TrEMBL record:
DUF397 domain: residues covered: 5-56
Record organism: Streptomyces kasugaensis
Record InterPro entries: DUF397 (IPR007278)
Domain of life (superkingdom): Bacteria
Protein name: DUF397 domain-containing protein
Length: 65
């Protein structure tokens, strides 16, 4: 298993939706639920992670009244 060093995402809400991200390994971005650190880890390529972040930011812009 890779040695991921997770940090809390700046988009996380400390009381509810907590996401941790690890970017310390080349070619892999790892994401997990901070409330379940022993649970599953989603591993993405940097390109997929960038596309995900772009989609989330566009969704937030469209949802803003």
């Amino acid at each position: 298993m890779p040695e991921f060093r997770f940090r809390k995402s700046s988009y996380s809400n400390p009381e509810r939706e907590c996401v941790e991200v690890a970017t310390n390994l080349p070619r892999t971005i790892a994401v997990r639920d901070s409330k379940d650190p022993d649970g599953p880890i989603l591993q993405l390529t940097p390109a997929a992670w960038t596309a995900f972040q772009l989609a989330v930011s566009q969704d937030r812009l469209e949802a803003t009244p």
